[in-house]
Amino acid sequence: MGVRGLQGFVASTCPHVCTVVNLKELAEHHRSEHPGCTPTIVVDAMCCLRYWYTPESWVCGGQWKEYFSALREFVQTFAAVGIKLIFFFDGMVEQDKRDVWVKRRLKNNREIAKIFHYIKSHRKQPGRNMFFIPSGLAIFTRFALKTLGQETLCSLQEADYEVASYGLQNNCLGILGEDTDYLIYDTCPYFSISELCLDSLDTIMLCRQKLCESLDLGLADLPLLACLLGNDIVPDGVFESFRYKCLSSYTSVKENFDKKGNTISAVAHHIAKVLRLHQGEKKLEEMLPLGPNKALFYKGVTSYLLPGQTSPWIFQKPKDIATLHKQVVSMSSDPEAKQEIPVCTDSDSNQENPMCIDPVCSQEIPVCTDPEIKQEDPMNMEPEIKQQVSMVSDTEILKIARMRHVQGESYLVYNILTSGEIECSNSLEDALDQALPSQAFVYRPVRQRVYSLLLGRGPDGASGCPTVREWFVYSGNPLRHPDLVRPLPMNIPGGTPSLNLLWLNQELGTQALRMDTLLACFDLLSSREELQAVEMPFQALCCLLTYLFVQVDTLCLEDLHAFIAQALCLQGKSAVQLEALQLECVDPRAVQLGALLVRGLTMVLLVHSVCGWPLRVGDFMPWNVFDGKLFHEKYLQSEKGCAVEVLVEQNGGGRDRDPAPTGRGPGIAGLAKDSTGETRGQEAGSTSLSGGKDTHPLLGGPADALQGWDRQLTVPRKPRHQMSDGSEDAADMRTTASLPHKDHLPCGRW
pTM of the prediction? Predict the structure, then answer.
């Protein structure tokens, strides 16, 4: 969420709202005033992703080891001065915010199109001004922080509401984020992540009290101001004409003001000088042109009220009000504890709000509810809650799913069980190049089998099975409606296991069933023995690659070699070494492949969560199995026909050969090609890589790894066609034959 224009207004019109503070000094002061209490900052992690992602390369799929190192430095810096961090992540998209979510995704599509146009034109990554967050960054950041020993929480509603509530209820030092809504909430101090200097721990504190002084408003007036200006609940177009009238009236008595900043000043002036005269006497709909947006507006105002808080702008009339209970932002695993959302209840209810922070404050938040509002009021969420819970009736399963969702240990599972609706944001996919299908379609069969596990197929088979609403971004999807996706049957001997069996059973042999179920989600159960023969930590990656090469018929052997070689070489490289890696160019197809693989790792996480956690989580975390620049280097080398020794960076077997294109080691880039464009000595349409002596100190035979796949996996090689100038046609190089059936794809011999 965010208030339209407020950030710019503060910076240009009332900069004194922003104060430079030192977090270390604030923590010391906090300790002196609250002995025995650890200074705690609650972090809106979604606002911090851009700040945390400091690696120079971002188009190749993500520099995950470098990113992990940056997160570790961030955490250690705060720990060194005794500040505890609590990280919050968005857990779901609320229905009221769906239109805003869609608009942002469509805007991202336009930005991605510009990125690919730049890459094709310049063969390099665009500047930071076109930066786009690597796929899966938010998801894997949760697990990176957990690996670093940090407390991470996933929201059950809008994350900023839970962040503000947590900060208020736990007497936190402040909130670290980048969202103007934190200027509206009446909560603990708000610190800017974008202005944070990690070396000194200096940053900007945005003071809502000073903002109120500048606008002649009270803290309780800020939610009203935010809704009149426009936010993610109340679109800015709703009150556009009202703001214009305020501006016209205001500028008639004020001169020499910036019009944009003047709009906020004008609306604030109207609240202070006009609306406040009738506060408590007239309803807001009598003073404002709410029209058909009355219920939406009231919901917008109440969305800023934290537990125990009331608004003087909600007109109180004992016989015509319903009580809006804002419950505690609970990290409980009890599924029967209602979500922390506004719920309209019986006007006779006298339930006490346990989180009232002011001993004299009212325990109820009255909302004007004449019959018209009562019928349409979106604040009444109880029917929706009941409908969501009815997707699955097993309370024990819901309890476990909710607990793991809140603790940030699963991905999408709770959303599917409770609402039957999920979403996936943009990936770096070229809308003008259809050679590679979108990840939304590539991994849909996996998700469909997951739906079968979570929701079943109904008593009437396909005709009676539930559908899941998917909001996935892909080329040509205007996102006007979700895709309705039905489950696919699971092919498991003995039938599809229940969630109770997968999640709760501790009997001997259940772990094997969990692994079989995971493989069945990828339709790879027939390859179980070969996959289990793969050494750690490559089992999960091997499973994913096998699925990809079955599912996508435009992948070829060069792609496979690049994926495997980067995973093998990554094991012996530090973040510093990866940072120093330089690419001779950026290939748009390799950009898409990197994003496709990382999205696949999120699908592994989903399946792992559903099947009872049969894998070691670290084995499919990207910083252990994937690096964008390293993959890009291997891709370029493989495209040029470099030898296996070059791909896996061995010293033996590659001497007396031309240097590899990147200058990192020996290769076969200069070997002559025959009249067909193929390297002499190789059969057209396939490849056979010869290996040298294994000299890798850590991996125990990386050349043999590639050779094992090469000997057993008949993957076609990309045909190459030379242009008149002797160069190779990049478009023709993408043509390839179909892959063999999955049952003929061995997965061992790493």
Answer: 0.80
